[in-house]
Amino acid sequence: MNGTHEVAISGGGIGGLSAALALAKSGVSSVVFERQAQWSEVGAGVQLGPNATRRLIAWGLEKSLVDCASWPERIEALSARTGGALATLPLGPRCQALYGAPYATLMRADLQRLLREGVERLGLTQLRLGEQLLPETLQQSDSVERTPSQAALLAFGVRAEGLKMGPQTQRREVAPLTRGNADEVQTHVTQALIGADGVFSQLREHLFQATPLQYTGHLAYRALMARADLPAHLRSNAVRLFLGPKMHWVQYPVRGGEWFNVVVLLEVDSASALGPAQHLARQRRFLSNPWHQNPTDNPTAPGEQSQDLEALQEALERSCTALRDVASLVPAWTVWPLFAVKPLSSGAGMSQGHVALLGDAAHPMLPYLAQGAGMSIEDAQALSRCWGERSLVVGERLALYAQWRWQRCAQVQRRAMSNATLFHLGGALGFMRDRALGLLGARLMDLPWLYSG
Ligand SMILES: Cc1cc2nc3c(=O)[nH]c(=O)nc-3n(C[C@H](O)[C@H](O)[C@H](O)COP(=O)(O)OP(=O)(O)OC[C@H]3O[C@@H](n4cnc5c(N)ncnc54)[C@H](O)[C@@H]3O)c2cc1C
């Protein structure tokens, strides 16, 4: 038996660390179990709209953000086929004036580090690396009758403490089981368990009657490039969005412009023929770039070119020279199959009893609105506010959190899906989209409902 923290959080990603930080800012102690043995130092970039940066700044992270972020001046929509500009949304002072916070781009690892440092400074959170929540059954010695959701908790290895207390529900606790580095199983008695364990959340799968996670048939190819390696005309302090049939390309500066993040998002029809296990095996696969390397130096790459690289190459052959030029300079791509679930349809998808989901665990989505991390940060702030409602019992606080959040998260999930269609239009429909962008420009690209939230 271990721990006296009010809240246990499974997952030390953007969502889990944000939750720990937001709770600690209100004086609430928590324990975070992160199954990785080390904090990630690498990874791709992430865009944060003013809805997310406003919260980071309120948590006291403005200086840390300034030290590692970039501040793009605008978002540009361009044609992937011709490279021609379609529309521009100014950011910078306009964003600050309209939404009270900046639009930032940064490395995911930097965001995770600054959240972690914020958590460590407050000293109310125990961070347990290399320790994972267990999806295993805890043997029970008692024979208390249970509701189905309590039984589900037990099946997952979360022991409902205090069940014998009858109506005194406010004294109930949960006791998540974890397995640490030394392979020993631990119990952590706590008041609530927050599942921030990402897209493949075991808590969502086992405890929540969520719609199953589905492979979308889309792949994300991610790469980082040093600014010095890019020709001057390709360095831009903008988020650039090149739209093309069944694909789009996103690039933006990170680390003050020292690096550029590139993501190519492709609809790969053939991939949908693969089963879920094969998609999972493809998760985070690292691909060396055959166009960049001399085949004689790299005997494995040309012969074993995967269908993923071929798909990327095909898409880029239909694209403008500027994109092909940048692609030829990319040393390596990391490919991510993209998964999503149907948008949330009620608060029951985010909280049940003493357990709540947060971030990708609650609402996995396509990254086509660049808001997955943003929603995790918003969730964290909402959780902390609801946890402060001390007149409510724990289950009511978590239900309030879910009620507060689910509709907005569902709206973002839906918009991310519709962006997938819109961004990837080709032919006459693609032409009409480009015309509309040309005519309406910033009015079409700005998202007041999202950024002011
Ligand atoms: C290509 C791409 C581009 C993106 N771009 C953007 C963007 O520009 N802006 C944006 O806001 N979002 C973006 N996102 C989405 C964003 O990365 C995610 O929404 C965000 O990282 C979710 O954070 P999370 O903490 O919920 O999940 P994760 O970051 O996945 O963290 C989950 C953590 O839980 C841990 N874990 C899992 N299981 C267990 C267990 N059983 N026990 C303990 N620990 C466990 C994992 O190791 C991990 O550290 C993008 C995503 C992709 C794929």
Could you characterize what this model shows?
There is one protein chain. The chain has helices at residues 14-25, 50-58, 62-68, 92-99, 108-122, 148-156, 202-207, 276-282, 300-303, 307-317, 321-329, 372-387, 394-423, 427-440, 442-445, 448-451; strands spanning 7-10, 30-34, 45-48, 74-79, 85-90, 104-107, 125-129, 132-133, 158-161, 173-179, 185-187, 192-195, 214-226, 238-244, 247-254, 259-267, 285-288, 332-340, 351-352, 355-357. 36% of the residues lie in helices and 24% in strands. The chain contains 16 helices and 20 strands. β19 (351-352) and β20 (355-357) form a beta hairpin. It folds into 2 domains: 7-41 and 125-210 and 342-420, FAD/NAD(P)-binding domain (3-Layer(bba) Sandwich), CATH 3.50.50.60; 214-340 and 422-448, D-Amino Acid Oxidase, Chain A, domain 2 (2-Layer Sandwich). With 453 residues, it is α+β, with helices and mostly antiparallel strands. The radius of gyration is 23 Å and the shape is globular. The strands form 4 sheets. It has an 8-stranded mixed sheet with strand order 5-4-14-15-16-13-18-17, sandwiched between helices. Strands 7-2-1-12-20-19 form a 6-stranded mixed sheet. Strands 8, 9, 10 and 11 form a 4-stranded antiparallel sheet that branches. Bound molecules: flavin-adenine dinucleotide. Flavin-adenine dinucleotide (FAD) binds at residues 10-16, 33-36, 46-47, 132-133, 196-198, 202, 220, 222, 263, 336, 359-361, 367, 370-374, 376.
